Amino acid sequence: MIPRYARAPMLEIWEPATRFRIWYEIEASACDALAEMGVIPVSAAKNIRERGDVSFDVARIDEIEREVKHDVIAFLTHLAEHVGEDARFIHQGMTSSDVLDTCFSVQLSRASDLLLLGVDRVLAALKTQAFAHKKTVCIGRSHGIHAEPTTFGLKLAQAFAEFDRGRKRLVAAREEIAVCAISGAVGTFANIRPEIEAYVANSLGLQVEPVSTQIIPRDRHAAFFCALGVLASSIERLATEIRHLQRTEVLEVEEFFSAGQKGSSAMPHKRNPILTENLTGLARLVRSAVTPALENVALWHERDISHSSVERGIGPDATVHLDFALHRLAGVIEKLVVYPQNMQRNLDQLGGLHNSQRILLALTQKGVSRETAYSLVQKNAMATWRGEGDFLSNLLEDTTVGQYLKQSELRDMFDIEYHLAQVDHIFERVFTDSDQ
């Protein structure tokens, strides 16, 4: 990741100093448990807590690693430099993956908590804007073509429901990833007791992995990164909608354009949707973590190391980028400029064609076959499409249509409120069922 697309609280989780602090807490908690069980002297555990609780010298650990070619051994060597003779009691019966995997669980859990804050901010912004534009009428589009009326508030309510589902997935993914494994070289507890694992897990706010090998099974991690990928896709979906609606010929909404902001180095008139374009790119980066995470599931026997290099990249990259994207999206929604007059202009652009289905249904209810009704409506609709009069006028002049529908009935069928009748009901379903 690069600082341009990162927020400090999430970056801190992945700093080397944070990682070493978590490693220390794992090792020290294991020693506390061993001391309580009488396996090591209480004085040793106390000394490890007192003398090992330091600001770890990252440069020194890196220096040792260059020699020993092993990051956990380098850390333990540096820790021993502070603890002294009692360091022999550290890492009793444990393997490096006990430390690495449990630490990764802590980091992903903390990252999840920050991501949930970002999702909550997005949900709050969407809810506020959805209710503000609950009855702001606009044209709905399918295949990019005008379909039937909807409201801008409904568009945002749809996004709210999607992010609410994404939040639930993230909560479940956090629960699944928040596990600890302190079970030794192949997960058999041959040289360490399960009580130690339970003690460490409790101290870190984790659950124990019921059955580990040398590592925590990677299906947990795969599910976690899949949840992030879906959230990223939800961000992209909403960002893409805003980008389309900001196109010059549409201009129904617009990203906030601040005083002094410039849109182009060449064209002073430009007001580009750069934030939502950026979100589209960030979504691609987050999703790029999904396939490697899935491929990490199939490791050799009780463990190989092929997952390690992948996770050292996708762990920070995916969470940092998604965290940034969530807060950027929330800012876009909070300051979104909405143009109801342009929505109405676009709605009227096709001369009432958005009522075609209502006319079709009315004819069938008058006894006309669906095929005949479709042909009648389409004939008049295509005339309007070609610029030959508005839809209502064409229908009123069609004597065949007039055999089944009175002119007053036709005029009533162009009432926009018909299309909005269930908006309140939909809002009630979306926002009553949500915890947000």
TrEMBL record:
According to the UniProt record, one GO cellular component term is: cytosol
Which keywords belong to this entry? Lyase, Purine biosynthesis
**Per the database record, which ranges form the Adenylosuccinate lyase C-terminal domain?**
351-431
Concerning SUPFAM superfamilies, the annotation shows: L-aspartase-like
Record InterPro entries: AdenyloSucc_lyase_C, Fumarase/histidase_N, Fumarate_lyase_CS, Fumarate_lyase_fam, Fumarate_lyase_N, L-Aspartase-like, Pur_lyase
Q: Which Pfam families match?
A: ADSL_C (PF10397), Lyase_1 (PF00206)
Which pathway does the UniProt entry assign to this protein? Answer: Purine metabolism; AMP biosynthesis via de novo pathway; AMP from IMP: step 2/2; Purine metabolism; IMP biosynthesis via de novo pathway; 5-amino-1-(5-phospho-D-ribosyl)imidazole-4-carboxamide from 5-amino-1-(5-phospho-D-ribosyl)imidazole-4-carboxylate: step 2/2
Which reaction equation describes what this protein catalyses? N(6)-(1,2-dicarboxyethyl)-AMP = fumarate + AMP; (2S)-2-[5-amino-1-(5-phospho-beta-D-ribosyl)imidazole-4-carboxamido]succinate = 5-amino-1-(5-phospho-beta-D-ribosyl)imidazole-4-carboxamide + fumarate
Record has DNA-binding as a keyword: no
Record GO biological process: 'de novo' AMP biosynthetic process; 'de novo' IMP biosynthetic process
| Keyword Lyase set for record | yes
Q: What class of enzyme is it?
A: lyase
Q: Output one GO MF annotation.
A: (S)-2-(5-amino-1-(5-phospho-D-ribosyl)imidazole-4-carboxamido) succinate lyase (fumarate-forming) activity
The EC number on file is: 4.3.2.2
The UniProt entry's sequence similarity note says: Belongs to the lyase 1 family. Adenylosuccinate lyase subfamily.
Q: Please identify the protein, giving its name as recorded.
A: Adenylosuccinate lyase
Source organism of this protein record: hydrothermal vent metagenome
